[in-house]
Amino acid sequence: MQDAYTSTVPMVCGIEVKEAGGDYEAMMQLAIWSAAGLEKVKRLGRIQSNDLPPFIGWTSVGNEWKAHLSWMNSSGHLTMGPLRPINYDTGSLYGIFVLFQLISRSCSYLTLEYLPWLLREVLGPLALP
Length: 129
Prior knowledge:
Domain PD-(D/E)XK nuclease-like: 7-114
Number of strands: 4
Organism: Glonium stellatum
Order of helices and strands: EHEEEH
Protein name: PD-(D/E)XK nuclease-like domain-containing protein
Oligomer: single chain
Strand order of the largest sheet: 1-2-3-4
């Protein structure tokens, strides 16, 4: 990243937004971002691939939102897939409220579980002299 602030902040949840019809491109870009992020965390923390928690990501294509999980197997290969039952759109009030609830739960996981793990296992040891 080129931005002075965001280049120093750990990125923990990718969101790729495309216009209608750009589903494949959105998934590929999110997969690339997730693979790079997982590899960076793995190298910084000197952590085995199978010990990395999965990355959460979202694609928004037109009105449709999909939650994705990405993880590395023990040989370092990325697996990414949408969580099939968690596809909602912003075309209805019901879909919007469900989407808000899912994003809220994702934020809870990221702040209560993932970020403490990242600070303890990866960033904390890097700060030690």
